Q: What sequence folds into this?
């Protein structure tokens, strides 16, 4: 047995590499036995493994690169890169932060068991070497948890920026209504010889006979739009608050999602027609799954109405598909893409996460001789025009969709560009 610590670390890394399948199987078994890790059960083996093999590769690289030097620093950067990818992918898959932290904890315990087995079989390995390995393992998981928390915080800040943009837009709209209302009141006060002021004038304004009809209609329309916009936003904020506070729970039962999708397509087709758009429903017309039908309905309705709202030409296609252990909904529009507007920060995170998911899924699919079905990332394309048609509630609406996906243990993917429009794909488990 080599006497130097560096040589002993090489022996240990070779042992860990040879035990890779055993470590991953033990980790998967531990996750499967953990009743608090509900989202993990909805994933295939390849999706569950995700970037963990690359994390273990990087960990072994770190051990071989000790002590210090440029190679060790490169190993540290590689490990951090894979940890960030894993955290981002888990966020996209609908993991809650406590689930992700427990998952890392199970990996640490599995590695600890392997190191304990190795030490028992190789008493000649110096204690200092095993202490160094244990320190590196703890550092690995500590950094992984830290990077995951940072990733979640970054995504939450992206969501918050979207909501702030929505609220600022709503406030600007209300201020414009107030400005126009004040202008109309000033004109009305002058016409009414200054006898009525303030709220009384506002109340009489619409009914006053000597107010020009065009101004009356404009004022009425402004009031109506303002009330509808603020009412819708308050409703969305209330729903989001309920989801984030944990007051919303899922009720699982079997239902025909094919019938649900067909029903929503029929209900929203007149809305599409009124805007000169098409609305098609494709895929399975009958598919029985386990899930919360009311929340699936809310999820699809939110994405469908959002697609119709922003699409000016062409239309929207809703596709229902099924895989071995999951089923999916895809909503594709021919709109201007999600490059700008209130929801852009959250969308950027989702696009980055989808690209990470695609990378991981392609590797897992290639091993089995299959192809990945994760959405393909779309290049930026021509100059973004999304901001010209952005409307109130976009950032809040996307946050609601993300929270519903988390509640349903669902993955959320997005591909978007000004040239191709926007596609959302939601992957849900067939059984809970």
A:
């Amino acid at each position: 047995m080599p006497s130097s610590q560096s040589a002993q670390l090489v022996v240990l890394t070779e042992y860990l590499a040879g035990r890779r399948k055993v470590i991953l199987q033990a980790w998967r078994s531990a996750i499967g036995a953990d009743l608090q890790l509900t989202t993990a059960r909805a994933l295939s083996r390849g999706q569950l493994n995700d970037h963990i093999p690359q994390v273990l590769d990087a960990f072994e690289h770190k051990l071989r690169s000790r002590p210090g030097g440029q190679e060790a620093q490169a190993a540290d950067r590689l490990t951090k890169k894979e940890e960030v990818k894993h955290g981002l992918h888990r966020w996209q898959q609908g993991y809650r932060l406590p689930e992700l932290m427990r998952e890392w904890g199970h990996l640490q315990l599995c590695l600890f068991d392997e190191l304990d087995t190795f030490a028992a079989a190789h008493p000649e390995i110096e204690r200092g070497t095993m202490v160094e390995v244990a320190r590196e393992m703890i550092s690995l998981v500590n950094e992984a948890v830290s990077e995951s928390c940072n990733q979640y915080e970054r995504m939450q800040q992206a969501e918050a920026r979207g909501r702030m943009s929505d609220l600022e837009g709503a406030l600007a709209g209300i201020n414009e209504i107030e400005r126009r209302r004040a202008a109309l009141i000033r004109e009305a006060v002058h016409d009414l010889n200054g006898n009525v002021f303030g709220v009384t004038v506002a109340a009489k304004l619409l009914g006053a006979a000597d107010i020009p009809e065009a101004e009356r209609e404009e004022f009425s329309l402004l009031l109506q739009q303002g009330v509808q916009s603020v009412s819708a936003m308050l409703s969305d904020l209330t729903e989001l608050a309920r989801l984030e506070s944990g007051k919303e729970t899922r009720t699982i039962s079997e239902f025909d999602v094919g019938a649900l999708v067909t029903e929503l397509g029929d209900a929203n087709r007149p809305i599409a027609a009124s805007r000169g758009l098409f609305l098609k429903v494709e895929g399975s017309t009958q598919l029985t799954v386990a899930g919360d039908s009311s929340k699936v309905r809310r999820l699809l309705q939110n994405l469908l109405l959002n697609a119709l709202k922003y699409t000016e030409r062409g239309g929207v296609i809703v596709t229902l598909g099924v895989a071995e252990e999951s089923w999916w909904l895809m909503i594709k529009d021919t709109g201007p893409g999600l490059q700008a507007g209130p929801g852009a920060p959250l969308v950027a995170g989702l696009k980055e996460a989808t690209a990470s998911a695609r990378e991981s899924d392609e590797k897992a699919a290639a091993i089995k001789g299959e192809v990945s079905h994760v959405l393909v990332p779309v290049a930026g394309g021509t100059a973004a025009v999304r901001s010209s048609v952005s409307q109130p509630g976009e950032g809040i609406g996307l946050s609601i969709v993300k929270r519903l996906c988390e509640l349903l243990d669902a993955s959320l993917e997005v591909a978007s560009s000004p040239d191709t429009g926007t596609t959302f794909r939601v992957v849900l488990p067939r059984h809970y």
In short: The domain at 253-429 is CATH 3.30.565.10 (Heat Shock Protein 90). The longest helix spans residues 127-191. The longest strand covers residues 421-429.
